[in-house]
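Journal club prep, shared notes

We agreed each person brings one worked example of a sequence with its structure written out as tokens. Mine is Major facilitator superfamily (MFS) profile domain-containing protein. I'm keeping it raw so we can talk through how to read the token line rather than staring at a rendered picture. Sequence first:
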Amino acid sequence: MLTYPPTRRALLVGCGLQMFQQLSGINTVMYYGATILQMSGVRDDKVAIWLAGVTAFTNFLFTLLGVWLVERVGRRKLTLGSIIGTCLSLSLLAIGFLLSAQHTPPVTLHPTDPSMVNSTCNRHLLCEPCMLDPGCGFCYRENSTALFASSCVPVNTASTEKAAWGRCSNSTQLRVHTYWAYNYCPTSYSWVVLLGLVLYLAFFAPGLGPMPWTINSEIYPLWARSTGNACSAGVNWTFNFLVSLTFLHVAQNLTYYGAFFLYSSLALIGFFFIYGCLPETKSRRLEEIESLFDNQLCSCGATDSDEDRQVEYIRVKGSNYHLSDNDASDVD
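Then the structure, token by token:
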């Protein structure tokens, strides 16, 4: 398969589609949906789980839209539209986290407990760096108008649901306008992140979700189809594992908005790859699809479907030639 240029090019396109599907962060969103909503400032765990269910239903609903669009729009256009929408919605997600970081509440109360002397939590002056420190949490009080008496304190080693000591270590006090925030900061921009998640899945589901599998089932000749699909599926699961495994580490080192800007940039690279290298396979026979990969790898993207082709006729000047009966008999 690798020694035959058309199938080698088809394999690179098929594996590239599966790679960029995962690099756009889809399984990060699906696996960590509730966690991402909590990171955005949703305080109640039950609310975060229900909102994650809403985003998952969006994925299901818009996948059905993709089934309706695929034979009307074509694989190439649907995939391109999907990935550029995915790129923009990831940017919106990142902007939501960026706004939360820029308007993060300050630390206004510095505890005098002796255990805080050598703690890294004592060095944080804002909620954002406190939240990014895995050993710290944000303890604060809140009334109907404002947030006050906020501090960055060590988290309990047995449970992240309360502080190691102080007012946020007492379950009774936590019920009386005192709140403990671990892994998130209180913010009024949670709705931006929720909107970004819904738009992300709305754009991803009809195109970038199913199209890599659909296209991989079409671009290989019969003798190479099983190998091509196996290789592309292997690439999909490999990058699924890598992206899912590294998300929390990437978020900790690049911040949450940095992580989603990274996924947005990778999706943009995927857009240019698909634009240059993916031909339209709609309404094409197997022999025609194989011929699309006869040329160099990234010259096939501009190939249009049969219905978009135009035939141009030209008139060639020449002279009429009259055949005699003898000449005609010679031709016969």
